[in-house]
Every structure is written in C-alpha cells, then in structure tokens.
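Hello support,

Our group uses your service weekly, and this is the first time we've seen a run hang past the timeout. The protein is ATP-binding cassette domain-containing protein. I'm not sure whether the cause is the sequence or the server load. Input pasted verbatim:
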Amino acid sequence: MIDAVNVKKSFINKKAEHEVLKNITIHVQPGKLTALVGKNGAGKTTLLRIIAGLHDIDEGELFIGGEPQSTKTLSQRKNIGVLFGGDTGLYNRLTVREHLEYYGFLYGLDELILKKRISLLEKDFQMGSYMNRRVKHFSKGMKQKVAISKTMVHDPDIYLFDEPTTGLDIIGSNMFREKVLDLKEKNKTVLFSSHNMEEVALCDDIIILHEGTIHYEGTLNTLYKENNDWNLNKIVMNLINEEL
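Update from on-call engineer: The timeout came from a worker crash unrelated to the input. Re-ran successfully.
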C-alpha cells in the first residue's frame, strides 16, 4: 500500500526553483494495478523516485506499507521493486544469471529460494537461451527483460515500474502484462507509468498527473462513466487539455 498526502517537491534549475509536485495526494492499494499517466515532465518519474526513497519530499507525508517513508528502513527498501525507464541498471560484464544472483543475494534471499525464483523468471520471460551470456551485446528488448526480472527476483510486495515495456517487442510486452496480472492475483501493490493506453487499460485505477498536479485519481470504470466515453486516449488527452 502507498499513501501520499499533500506531497510537494521542488528542484533548483539554473538558480531558479521549479516545483515539480504540488500537493500530491494518492492512495495505491494492494491487489490492484494502478497506472500513472501524463506528459513528459508531468512529475511521474519524480513521484516514483520519491516513493522508492531516492528523493526526499519537501512537504507532506508518505507511507509505504503503513510505515512513514522518511524512516527509509532496510526492510522497507527490500519490500520494493523498482524499474526506471531508460535505466536498466545492468552491468555489461555480468551474465543474466549473475545479475539475478547478485540482486537476489543483495536482498538477502536464501540460496535455494533464489534458485527457484531465477528458474521461474527464466521461464516466464523465455530467457533460457541466453541466461549464461553477458548482457553487453544484448538488444534493448533483451536488456529490458533482464531489468524487469531483477526488479522481481526478491518477490517484494510493492512494484514501481516507469515505462516498463520500453524496447520490448509484442511478445515481450505480452509477457510483462501477464506477469503484472499475476502480481495482482498475488495481492501485490503495482504502480506503473506508461504512455501506452493499451497497457493502461489493463489497470483497475488510474492517476492522471499534469504539471505536477493530480487531474484525476480513481477507477478506470468511473473515468469512463464520468466522460460517457470508452476511448481512453481521448479522455486522457482532454483531461490534460491537449488538442486531439
């Protein structure tokens, strides 16, 4: 569970203060998929980084699994899986298996449990043919599957994905979608940003962020009913005041 109340965050840019998040209040529930939607620069990645504990908030409160995020406890960090768009966090000299082993041991997984987790991820993302190859010369899509896998290897309760299907082909994208639906069935808390409305349509809830403010937070079904329309792309574009 993720609860943010009146969260504010600013950065200094060229000696001027830029307010990225303005009184953000959200509630992300376990057992549901929640999409974070908005233009580039809306504040999506900043919000995800704050939830992950990578940025402090200037004002407001943030609770992760009922604990104040400001405590930044080790147990809290272990309970979050994070993937940021464009940043796979991979090491060229390591193989796929070595990456998963490294991150699994980093999170304190028992060797037998880790072995089972790696075997499951290998199967789910069809990586068997290159598990023992170094990632240096992998395609973008192959690297993205490894990055997603290392995010999931420790089986946390909370997942934060920033543009998770970037670089994936249609098969890889479908693998990811099946996996997040499985996370939902396991009562995990899943928050991901995406520009792909087909992915967003899988979600139960949606948060539309525009210029650092929340323009909508609620269920997709309610959004459709309020707008008397099932065209999600059109609804989102209208809510952030863009021309179709």
